[in-house]
Amino acid sequence: MSPAPHFRHGIVSGNIHFAIKTGLKGSGCLVFMGNLDFLYHPDVNDDYLCPDIMVICDRSHLRGGTYSGVPRFIAETLSPSSAHRDRSEKMKIYEQAGVEEYWIVSPRGSLEIYYLKDGAYVLEQSFLLQDVKDEDDYNAEEELSLRAFPHIKMTLGEIFEGVNE
Q1: Considering the chain, what is the average pLDDT of its residues?
Q2: Core-most of 37, 85, 87, 124, by most CB within 10 Å?
Q3: DSSP letters spanning 126-151
Q4: How does 58-71 read in b/e, with b if 16+ C-beta sit within 10 Å?
Q5: Helix (H) or strand (E) holding 154
Q6: Interatomic CA distance for residues 14 and 8, integer angstroms
Q7: Predicted TM-score (pTM) above 0.70
Q8: Strand blocks (E) in 27-100
Q9: In the chain, what are the domains?
């Protein structure tokens, strides 16, 4: 078994999960935080991944602890032991599965947002948190939203809240 991720990993994932869960109320969609397996080739085999955060809207593909449809959104929070896999293998799997938005988040304060365009991920936005208000590059109040759910908004500061306390 792999060791548990660093507590900062859980803080960042929890912050994003909270913002999405609050925004999804009444939509019929669900957000999961590391507790639902994504079967990405259900017609071919039973291979799966367990994304840190996953939004699904088609409940007909839910079976027990697995989801075999196409998630609307996935985020992976980096850990030293998973960073390479999140940026390569998992990214390619999500891309081929048709996941339209993929976030790679580092508890150290960076965020990359990829959108699926013509079957391939394109890096659309990239941030490095600067939360010192006196600095020219201050961006903690930069507001982000999910592409499929533009009403769900969170700031960079909210994503990384509590990480360095």
Answers
A1: 93
A2: 37
A3: EEE----TTSTT--TT-EEE-SS-TT
A4: eeebeeeeebbbbb
A5: strand 153-155
A6: 10
A7: yes
A8: 30-32, 37-39, 48-49, 53-56, 62-63, 66-67, 73-77
A9: 7-159 (3.90.1570.10)
Token couple for 118: 């013509």
For the chain, the residue count is 165
The encoded tokens of residue 53 equal 């955060």
- Nearest Cα neighbor of 35 from 11, 20, 53 is 53
Residue 5: band (very low, low, confident or very high) from pLDDT cuts 50, 70, 90: low
**Alpha carbon distance 138, 157 (integer Å):** 10
* Cα→Cα distances 63→4, 66, 114, 161, Å: 26, 5, 28, 34
What's the pLDDT at 44? 80
Q: What is the pLDDT of residues 94-125, one digit of tens each?
A: 999 999 999 999 999 999 999 999 999 999 99
